[in-house]
Amino acid sequence: MWVDPKCGDGICESPFEFASYSRFGCRADCGKLQEVQNLTKVQADVYWDFSHPVGSIPSSVSPIVTHPPGAALRCTGAV
Fold this sequence. Notes:
The protein is α+β, with helices and mostly antiparallel strands. It has helices spanning 27-30, 33-36, and strands at residues 41-47, 72-78. A two-stranded antiparallel sheet has the order 1-2. The mean pLDDT is 79.
């Protein structure tokens, strides 16, 4: 008979239970993600430039840009 794993029974039943991060996972059985995995912070800087090269013909559709050309979008997090 199939029985759903219960968080807090002392057994980490992968893949249905996993180490907790934020409000997800089962900390009681599987611990905290930061304690069971080696996490590395990653920073990704993304740059863009929607300007047209000199002498080119701009398209009739212009992108919606909320930041000035050449601005950086910075994303930080852990993987």
